[in-house]
Design goal:
The complex is a heterodimer of chains A (401) and B (72). With 401 residues, chain A is of the alpha/beta class. In chain A, 42% of the residues lie in helices and 21% in strands. Chain A folds into three domains: 104 residues, OB fold (Dihydrolipoamide Acetyltransferase, E2P), CATH 2.40.50.140; 147 residues, 3-Layer(aba) Sandwich (Rossmann fold); 35 residues, no CATH class. Classes of the chains: A alpha/beta (401), B mainly alpha (72). Strand 7 of chain A pairs parallel with strand 1 of chain B, so a sheet runs across the interface.
């Protein structure tokens, strides 16, 4: 290769030389696998390490904020560095600039995750006490998952088994590969920005290998879930182990389907709590009423008994009174009749004596006693009664004086 | 105040009130006359809450790309 690059005709300065070499190598995109050692993150802005194998080694560096998962990288871990060669022009120092550093092979990855898991556990990220339960009323949720995915359709269709008018704001994301971490972080930030609007965030994806699920074991995503002001329901499809996001989330489900079922079941529970509260109120009030009713009945019965008695006694008195009155009236009547008879008798005795002495009684044609001449007219017929017998005569003349 | 916040607050408040009324009934702290008023209120709250959870379809809205951050 060196035959084509004979520049010995030109005399270069050191700077020019360094610049030349850097210019040649830096466009190369490479992926280098080796053992990562001498990890140095003390500066907090730069990531330095050495990548080596049995035959050679090279310096690796990168800005720390590019290596999002630097915390899972362990001393001695087998990794793949994706990046390009750089020659630092000032010193001629050659290194591999890393765009990303990923654990290579399942074993390395597992070890890295174990390390992170222990660390988070100590920090209390998995503490049951910090986990929030589902809010009583789930009216609006944020859904974070891949668009056109089985996870999405499973979640939505199972949720539709229990219609309750939930508003679902769907934020499509990448769930694996480059950009997944930032994509998911953006989604969580989006819903947290309007945290008061959302009752729940559902973070879910379908199953996959450990490499596929890397984003959900990523420190950045974990931090976003941990710090979410909206409760997070995580359902990251998995095979044997839980993702770290599952462990940090407030509620977790094993599949998108189960996540929807949890929400549906919760909705049912809320409805039945309302029903049971209603029943409590109604039952207790009914009991209250029937207690009062019993009291009233007892009182009314007692009252009625008293009045019935009163009524009976009064009735009895009334009857006696009526009978007394009848008796008195009868008596009066009898006595009146007797009196009349007696009166007649008396009267008859009275004028019999007078008639014996020669006096007479004169009656008109109506048998009425004539006491003065004015009572008759001329030619009227009159009857004169003697002690014995009578004379019938006619008025010839009369004298009123 | 946006509608969503006041709706959640209304639901949570209404639910708490319903719980309180039911508790009062359970503890026998209610008399006959006050009771009918409380029962009416409680039933009204229960009706309101159940209506909120009634069989209306879910509504999915996709967040448009313009709101999303752009990846590196």
């Amino acid at each position: 290769m060196s035959e084509n690059f004979n520049l010995q005709n030109q005399v270069l300065s050191v700077a020019q030389f360094n610049q030349l070499i850097d210019g040649i190598v830096s466009p190369l995109q490479v992926v280098v696998e080796g053992e990562l050692v001498q990890i140095n993150t003390r500066s907090s802005r730069w990531f330095f390490a050495t990548l080596k194998d049995s035959q050679a080694s090279v310096s690796v560096f990168s800005p720390l904020n590019r290596i999002a998962n630097w915390q899972i990288l362990q001393e001695g871990m087998r990794v793949r560095v994706d990046g390009w060669p750089r020659l630092y022009q000032k010193t001629g120092r050659f290194s591999l600039f890393a765009r990303s550093i990923a654990p290579a092979g399942k074993g390395a990855l597992k070890k890295a995750l174990e390390k992170l898991k222990k660390e988070l556990e100590i920090l209390g990220y998995f503490d049951p006490d910090r986990k929030r339960s589902l809010p009583t009323f789930i009216r609006r949720i944020g859904l974070i998952t891949a668009p056109d995915s089985r996870a999405y359709s499973d979640f939505i269709s199972i949720l539709n088994h229990q219609l309750s008018g939930i508003k679902i704001d769907f934020y499509p994301v990448l769930v694996q590969g480059d950009g997944a971490v930032n994509s998911i972080k953006s989604a969580l930030n989006f819903f947290n920005y309007q945290a008061s609007q959302y009752d729940l965030v559902v973070l879910t994806r379908g199953g996959g290998s450990l490499e596929d699920l890397l984003a959900f074991n990523n420190r950045t995503v974990i931090e976003a879930v941990y710090g979410s002001r909206v409760p997070v329901l995580a359902a990251i499809g998995h095979e044997e182990d839980d993702c770290l996001v599952d462990l940090v989330a407030d509620i977790r489900a094993s599949t998108p389907t189960q996540a929807a079922q949890i929400i549906n079941y919760h909705h049912q529970e809320t409805l039945s709590i309302i029903d049971s509260l209603t029943k409590t109120m109604v039952d207790n009030y009914q009991e209250l009423i029937s207690n009062y009713q019993e009291t009233v009945n007892t009182l009314v019965n007692g009252l009625s008994f008293y009045y019935r008695q009163q009524f009976r006694e009064t009735n009895y008195l009334l009857n006696r009174f009526n009978r007394a009155i009848d008796y008195f009236f009868n008596k009066i009547e009898t006595q009146r009749e007797t009196l009349l008879v007696l009166e007649k008798l008396l009267l008859s005795f009275d004028y019999q004596n007078i008639l014996k002495r020669g006096f007479t009684i004169t009656l008109d044609s109506h048998d009425k006693i004539i006491k003065s001449p004015g009572q008759v007219s001329l030619a009227d017929q009159i009857v004169t009664r003697f002690y014995q017998g009578k004379i019938i005569s006619q008025v010839k003349s009369k004298n009123e004086s | 105040m946006n509608p969503k916040t006041s709706q959640t607050k209304n639901l949570a408040t209404a639910f708490k009130e319903l719980e309180k009324i039911a508790q009062q009934f359970e503890q026998g702290k209610i008399d006959l006359e006050q009771g009918i008023k409380e029962l009416e209120r409680g039933l009204e709250l229960a009706r309101f809450l159940k209506k909120q959870l009634s069989k209306i379809e879910h509504k999915v809205t996709e967040i448009k790309k313009s709101y999303q951050e752009i990846d590196d």
